[in-house]
Amino acid sequence: MVDGISSKVLQIRKEHIKLSLSDLNMVDHRQEYVTTIDGVMYYDDSRAENVNATWFTFQNIVKPVVWIAGGDDKSADFKDLKKVVKQKVRAMVCVGIDNAKLKKTFHKDITDIFEVESVDEAVNLAALLAKYDDIVLFSPACKSATGETYTERGNQFTETVRRMEHERHQ
Question: Is pLDDT above 70 for 88?
Fold first, then answer.
């Protein structure tokens, strides 16, 4: 309704409004497409430092996922993710120091769960696990256990993916 009123007041057609809105930039590190390598799409969702944000991201995904998650999971309750994870996640790579709660929550729903210490290791392992037309999604669902910001973790993810892409094209 606001769209219609604004259009009439400003005498702007809806098509122009839609075109203007489509030009807005996405928020960094929130469902941000990085690249596609060997048919696998890589997305940085490092801003999703809670279960609700990660759940919302999964609602937008229609392809199989290799999910990179983890960090400080002590205060997180992952049960709201169980249904969507069971439907969409093929493999999971837990990154961080202690991901016991993540692994315990999803061990019956995901056959392949691995644990690594760094984002760099997580990306490399996820690339090995991913199949053509999969998505590798970095959506931690909790804060970093080492105190890094979502921006720092997202940049690590993106840099590792870009480095991998560069190596494949040499």
Answer: yes
Q: Is residue 43 part of a domain?
A: yes
- Rounded to the nearest 5 degrees, what angle is found at the Cα of 166, between the Cα atoms of 164 and 169? 110
- 11 three-state secondary structure: coil
Report the relative pairing of strands 112-116 and 89-95 from DSSP bridges: parallel
Instruction: For residue 67, give both structure tokens.
Output: 């999910």
Does 79 fall in a domain?
A: yes
Give the integer Cα–Cα distance in Å for 29 and 47.
Answer: 5
Q: Specify the pTM.
A: 0.82
- The phi and psi torsions of 63 (rounded to 5 degrees) equal -110, 165
Tokens encoding 97: 């120091």
- Domain housing 105: 26-168
